[in-house]
Amino acid sequence: MTRFPVLTVVAALLALWYIAVIPMNAQWEYDQANRAGRDLPFGEMVANTMAQERPVLPAPHQVVVELWNSTVVEEATGRRGLWRSGSLSNRSLIYHGLITLSATMLGFVIGTGGGILLAIGIVYNKAMDTSVMPWAIASQTIPIIALAPMIIVVLNSVGIAGLVPKAIIAAYLSFFPVVVGMVKGLRAPDAMQLDLMKTYSASGNDVFAKLRLPTSMPYLFASLKVGIAAALVGTIVGELPVQEGGLGVRLLSGSYYGQTIQIWAALFAAAILAAGLVGIVALIERRVLKRMGMAQ
Amino acid sequence: MSDVAVPPVVIEAQGLNLTFTTNDGPVHALKDINLSIHKGEFVSFIGPSGCGKTTFLRTIADLEQPTGGTLSVNGMSASEARKARAYGYVFQAAGLYPWRTIEGNVRLPLEIMGFSKADQAERAKRVLELVELSGFEKKFPWQLSGGMQQRASIARALAFDADILLMDEPFGALDEIVRDRLNEELLKLWARTQKTIGFVTHSIPEAVYLSTKIVVMSPRPGRITDIIDSPLPKERPLEIRDSPEFIAIAHRVREGLRAGYEEAGE
Amino acid sequence: MSDVAVPPVVIEAQGLNLTFTTNDGPVHALKDINLSIHKGEFVSFIGPSGCGKTTFLRTIADLEQPTGGTLSVNGMSASEARKARAYGYVFQAAGLYPWRTIEGNVRLPLEIMGFSKADQAERAKRVLELVELSGFEKKFPWQLSGGMQQRASIARALAFDADILLMDEPFGALDEIVRDRLNEELLKLWARTQKTIGFVTHSIPEAVYLSTKIVVMSPRPGRITDIIDSPLPKERPLEIRDSPEFIAIAHRVREGLRAGYEEAGE
Amino acid sequence: MLVAFVAELPRKGGLMGLIAPLIFGATILWAWECVVHALGVPRVILPAPSSIAARLATSTDTLWIDLVQTFGRGALSGYVIGCGSAFVFALVVDRYRFLRQGLLPVGNFLAALPIIGTAPIFVMWFGFDWPSKAAVVVAMVFFPMLVNTVQGLTATDSMQRDLMRTYSASWGQTLLRLRLPAAMPFVFNGLKICATLALIGAIVAEFFGSPTYGMGFRISTEVGRLQLDMVWAEIAVAALLGSAFYGVWALLERRVTFWHPSQRSR
Amino acid sequence: NDEVTLQLKWVTQAQFAGYYVALENGYYTEEGLDVTIRPGGPDIAPVQVLMGGGADVMVDWMPSALAAREQGAPVVNIAQPFVRSGMMLTCLAESGITSPEDFPGRTLGVWFFGNEYPFLSWMAHLGIPTEGGDDGVEVLRQGFNVDPLLQRQADCVSTMTYNEYWQVIDAGITPEQLVTFKYEDQGVATLEDGLYVLEDNLNDPAFVDRMARFVRASMRGWHWAEENPEEAAMIVLDNDETGAQTESHQIRMMGEVALLTQGSTGALDEEAYARTVATLLGGGSDPVITAEPTGAFTHVVTDAAMQ
Ligand SMILES: Nc1ncnc2c1ncn2[C@@H]1O[C@H](COP(=O)(O)OP(=O)(O)OP(=O)(O)O)[C@@H](O)[C@H]1O
Ligand SMILES: Nc1ncnc2c1ncn2[C@@H]1O[C@H](COP(=O)(O)OP(=O)(O)OP(=O)(O)O)[C@@H](O)[C@H]1O
Ligand SMILES: Cc1ncc(C[n+]2csc(CCO)c2C)c(N)n1
Ligand SMILES: [Mg+2]
Ligand SMILES: [Mg+2]
């Protein structure tokens, strides 16, 4: 037990979840029994709450089954699955996950690049330092989900459609942590480290490449981890209004049709994707920092 | 002191003043400093905490701007001398870049100054040998003890053969035994290369053992209270510390220090 | 040495061993330490960096757990002694809490130990006077120089009158003059209060000047190479440092240190 | 972890620090106005700042009703509940190592969950009025706050903790006198991040069902009615409100964590 | 080939089957058109897309189109494939509601985003305030599903005959347990799903010609879809990028939609238009439109299409 804290906690959460399923879904069962004019024994009620088609709270195994069905099973046996049609099925979360992933990556790259450039501007330019940062913060207080449809309409009208509008929203959310982290990182060298460069009368480029950039690496990676998760959120927000596939669409279309299980499956798919992306960044971080001698 | 042909003046400060403006009002860190340092001299700065030793060294290296008086280095301004890469500076703490190996750290100034790859490797090897760090080239700073790090930072300052070596309490963090050994090494190096060295220390024996000139400073405002030209010979075995001349100089330094304290009224 | 009625043993280590397990394998920080410290003794620990001085002090204070041997303090285990609040500990760095004023920092242990408000104020005032920090009560740590911070941390350890005072290089950051003065103060305090003091230092003169017993240690593995009982009288003016006894003890300590080094083969 | 370092209002110096961003903002608004007029952008696509301002002035009643609903009821209550429970939970998690090891990775996983996806679920669970909005806000702010607080509670260095150990201070005393003060910079970081998230969360939740008022309701309804100036007026209010809410915490932070190096002038 | 972009009002579903059929069956190509169909979605305002130049023609409901026109977005109806309204209010029988007189004091779910106009007009006709209170109704902004009814957060919710109603049924509630009020039956029906373009474009004969071909092919698509509901539903499914629609639901939807389009030539019925306008104008103190619109529809396109 105590050897595997994470497993124990997960098991406890699952147990809680299962227990919560019963009261959350019970009302519906009693209503139905009422409407049918019959009694509902407790045992049957409990069993039923675990197997509703449109539960208020689906049981964990229902979500797992849905995840399995809408990935492996759909691709293997679906009419448009990989097996029969040779291409990924638009009913599978793999297909939608890939759409989301590609927009996320594009947005992440744009956001990170922009964030780094902005950070360099802030660190090297006094005017930018004093004027840009409050606006960067203010920008994050704008409810982007409210703007997303308009951004998409406007971009569509100038002929930009598909991946790019979503990626732009993703970039909008991911640039901020990168700016904050990089500004901190580029300012991380202490006075002595900077003075050392001065005694060498090193050029600005040397100071940047040999001092500021290396010191900013741990900060950069920490922000990349936040940034990539934010990019995923941005992509999903961007996908909600454009019904062209992606996990965001699955979230919402599940909601249109009251298919709670589908919402939960899409939600978990998104969380798994997020955790995977953050994990990959963490892996790269460990490698890079190790090579730089900054980890252990 | 030196009998024939006085070597040329390398560092010349006249009426040097430096006042920091802080929230709590101005701090007069250097007041009316007059000092000439000749080529090949080994000058120690000693004085209580906050008397301006570091500030003076930093001013020479153009890391601080004096607010009054003149300072010339090799006949130029400190800033020009810095741009001509005249200084090797060893900071109070080792200050190695943690993402570079020991060798990478020693190569840093060489890369910046545009030495060839081969030259870099050759010089790094030579100075690391000098500070007895051969075999640790590929280690990262945190894999070394504090004393080894400090030696690496000395190697870094030596690598590009600046004429003027400025060292701010380089041995402060070391224990007595290691310190003695590094003191001997430093003296040998100095004798061999004829560099001009400015050296800050808290330790009276260290100052006396190493220097041809000892500058005693006193705080609030930071100023020079005594300049002692050492009569000790260039060759200095460790045992010289028991000689009466040594003890006499040490005594004079201690008296100078104490006077500074009493005057400042702390 | 002491002729009549040997005071009781306060700290007793027998066959003490401590091994740290690290990624690179075990580090044998303390090996077979046997030592008795009597009530009212002033014991200095000296030895090269990494020889286990800090570790030993921390073990006494129950901040590290020995992996072998026995350690008793006042006849109890170290842990019981800690819970009985037997220790005042001064760390190598000042370690003041930056969100408390100097007075607040000194009051910290008093609050924890449940002293009354009036008692707290009175004690804080007294110990701050002792370390010459009157007038700085309301300042925050970062507004003081390193030396002042160190003194505040000493005041903090003195405030609650623990029987045993453990000090890990408390004067490392100070210059010689201030150090001399604090050494004198510490001796006076010790003479007045009859506390038992464990004191880590890098400085041979300091160790000899302060102690009734000097423990010389040597690294890899950390062990005791020499225990020197000092014949110096309890009254020690600063000039005692020029006396032949003093120089003789210093010599013995230095030889002990050097032997440790050579043996460790560095 | 991740979110910990986000959000650092620049330490602005006096008036200049306020004027520069204002000029910057004014420039952007001016450019926007020019573009809209020069290109003849249809009003239903992008209104000019002037017409947004006019709408702001004439629709204060509606804007106020929406603000009370979304910020006052949804965002604030969610913020208080979310941050408050996360803080308490952090204390519990911190108390038990097992929970810390088990819950934090799970927490990090859940924090990566795109919370907007939970909005339709919460609306289904908690109904249309503000409780479902508060629930979304709780879900959004809980993990950033938890992670920051837990990290903050471990932000003490080992020496500070050892000091408490030598006093044999209880868990509560250590928490109150050491770990909470030390955690404050992290706690405020969390509070600041959550301040920007709270309003956004409440607005997002209104997109999935709401009464017929509220900022999110207004925004999405007025887009359908092509009243884009009203939409932008709401967005402007949201941005101002969000920034002000953030600013309040930043100010408080400056007062509470005055001692932290990042809060002292740099 | 001439390019045409069509912006739908909502996501890909059988509600728009005619256009997808025309696309898949090559009717558009036969007319020399290269048609792109853009699905809509929540918070996508078709008028905005049209104004921004993102589409040439859109599907919209007449109330929101007329409201937009009054707002200065000059959209014009060029064809009207839907001749009947599919809108209704669906209530749980157990709530005790049997007629509109029972509404006061109840909570009703309504779609907003420009779709609230028919409801508001209806309530205005009934003289029921929509700000809550004892003699008014409590209005919820309902999301895109019927959960509020199933969770009993609302007594009634808005449904379309072809979509949401069946979601209620699928959720396990029988038709007997429901009471429905069709806008058609209440005499407040407004025209839904018409085709709209920007007024300026109609001055261009080439554009009118393009639209004529587009409407002709679309109506061909609609007629085919009415006759082959199952195949039409499959075509819709094939065009659904999201993969969220199910076969059975779309086939059923196609059947219901066919009831609404049946008999349409594509030309706007001026009587129905007048009725819609009257309904919208008669909104009491806060009518949807304040003045009789002029030039809000044209027959030029359908005339050209039907030659
Ligand atoms: N950047 C600065 N801004 C303001 N005051 C400064 C600054 N640097 C140094 N000072 C002040 O100038 C005085 C001299 O400082 P300096 O560092 O030169 O002393 P020092 O002799 O090197 O002391 P130490 O032996 O402690 O290193 C001190 O009072 C110090 O507080
Ligand atoms: N927590 C720890 N984990 C692993 N090794 C440790 C730990 N603490 C100390 N050591 C090792 O134990 C040995 C003794 O360390 P200690 O700090 O006691 O030395 P010291 O004599 O106080 O040295 P210094 O004079 O540098 O303070 C060293 O080799 C050190 O690297
Ligand atoms: C944002 C938004 N909300 C509601 C509707 C109303 N609506 C009109 S058609 C339709 C689909 C019917 O199956 C629905 C829900 C909309 N168009 N857009
Ligand atoms: Mg200094
Ligand atoms: Mg130590």
From TrEMBL, chain A:
Q: Where, per UniProt, does this protein localize?
A: Cell membrane
Keyword field contains Transmembrane = yes
Q: How does it sit in the membrane?
A: Multi-pass membrane protein
Matching entries from Gene3D superfamilies are given as: MetI-like
Q: Which domain of life is it from?
A: Bacteria
Q: Does the keyword Transmembrane helix apply?
A: yes
Q: What is its main location?
A: membrane
PROSITE patterns under this entry? Answer: ABC_TM1
What keywords sit in the KW lines?
Answer: Cell membrane, Membrane, Transmembrane, Transmembrane helix, Transport
Give TM regions: 93-123, 135-155, 167-186, 219-241, 261-284
Domain ABC transmembrane type-1 as annotated: residue spans: 93-285
Among the Pfam families in the record, one is BPD_transp_1
Give the UniProt family note. Belongs to the binding-protein-dependent transport system permease family.
Q: Which PANTHER family match?
A: ABC TRANSPORTER PERMEASE PROTEIN HI_0355-RELATED, ALKANE SULFONATE ABC TRANSPORTER-RELATED, MEMBRANE SUBUNIT
Please identify the protein, giving its name as recorded: ABC transporter permease
UniProtKB/TrEMBL annotation, chains B, C:
Record-annotated ABC transporter domain positions: 13-240
One Pfam entry name? ABC_tran
Q: Identify the CDD domains for this entry.
A: ABC_NrtD_SsuB_transporters (cd03293)
Q: Which GO terms describe its molecular function?
A: ATP binding
According to the UniProt entry, the coiled-coil residues are none
Protein family according to the UniProt entry? Belongs to the ABC transporter superfamily.
Q: What is this protein called?
A: ABC transporter ATP-binding protein
Automatic annotation (TrEMBL), chain D:
Q: Where are the transmembrane segments?
A: 12-32, 76-94, 106-128, 134-155, 186-210, 230-252
Q: Which ranges carry the ABC transmembrane type-1 domain?
A: 86-257
Q: Does the keyword Transport apply?
A: yes
Domain of life where this protein originates? Bacteria
Primary localization class, coarse: membrane
What is the protein's membrane topology class? Multi-pass membrane protein
Q: Which InterPro entries match?
A: MetI-like (IPR000515), MetI-like_sf (IPR035906)
Record localization: Cell membrane
Q: Which Pfam families match?
A: BPD_transp_1
Keywords assigned by UniProt? Cell membrane, Membrane, Transmembrane, Transmembrane helix, Transport
Q: Which PANTHER family match?
A: ABC TRANSPORTER PERMEASE PROTEIN, ALKANE SULFONATE ABC TRANSPORTER-RELATED, MEMBRANE SUBUNIT
Q: What is this protein called?
A: ABC transporter permease
What is the organism of origin for this protein?
Answer: Pararhodobacter zhoushanensis
The organism's taxonomic lineage, starting at the top: Bacteria, Pseudomonadati, Pseudomonadota, Alphaproteobacteria, Rhodobacterales
